[in-house]
Amino acid sequence: MSRSFTFIGVSTAGSSIMAVFPRWRDALGLGDDVGIQGWDLEVGAGDDAYREAVDRLDGDPQNLGALVTTHKLGIMRAAGDRFAELDPDARLLGEVSCIAKRGGRLHGWAKDPVTAAASLEPIIGTDHFTGGAEALVMGAGGAGAAIAIYLAARRSDRPGRVLVTDTAPERLDHLREIGARVGAPEALELRAVTGPHDELLAALPEGSLVVNATGMGKDRPGSPLGDRAEFPPGAVAWELNYRGELCFLRQAEAQREQRGLVVADGWSYFIRGWAAVIEEVFERPIDESELELLSAEAAAARTNAKEE
Fold this sequence. Notes:
By secondary structure, the protein is an alpha/beta fold. The protein folds into 2 domains: 3-110 and 268-307, 3-Layer(aba) Sandwich (Rossmann fold); 113-265, Rossmann fold, CATH 3.40.50. Helices cover 43% and strands 19% of the residues. A 6-stranded mixed beta sheet has the order 2-1-3-5-6-4, with helices on both faces. The chain has a 6-stranded parallel beta sheet with strand order 9-8-7-10-11-12, sandwiched between helices. The radius of gyration is 19 Å and the shape is globular.
């Protein structure tokens, strides 16, 4: 392969994209000379590591661009000055999840807000919160912050309360600043939480949305909920992970029938998130019919991987 597309994450070898991308490349006609490579950085890698990764990508003319997962905020903080242009959401959220080259210069995007809307609306529709349901978003990192802003400021049926938690006060402070800039401070309630979220979960009204955006169950073991946690009746449990231990997902599945839950994992988020980045990196629009094709190809690759 003479050209490369990069995945900057934590444990990239375990991601389904490694088996999926070659199928997508062929389905979209991106060229058989392009391959995918993973660059692993540990959680909380320092600024030097983030700058080195961006400079390495920038300095390789055969490297077309990258999707960034866990390190979105760190790359923006440490290497934001390396980008010739950043989209409005990257500036708003202070993160970069998509890196592509235009005229040999780096451009950055934050794709989570668009991906969150496209992934969540098929699960809950567009009027879910009109009946008084609230939202609990556990984790205020890149994806969690984007989902919180989407819920609090960009939906017509805004929840009465969007409760966002994190173990790091600085991430909550960052989200508080974002909320103020988009005019949604009254809808956002931010709390630093270091233990299980059981009491917060129990206080939610019927039909509330509960999101695991902590990384627990994939990058880190466990769940943000204790073993005895009970979801409110009719709640929507959204696990952003699609691989790993998925403890939160299993907890929700165990209560699905008894509590009348809607349970979803992060597979759709995975598909739409990668497709959005591919569109920018390869400057190749992907329509809904092609997105369905990519989803089918990804499902086939996922099945084959499990069989192996």
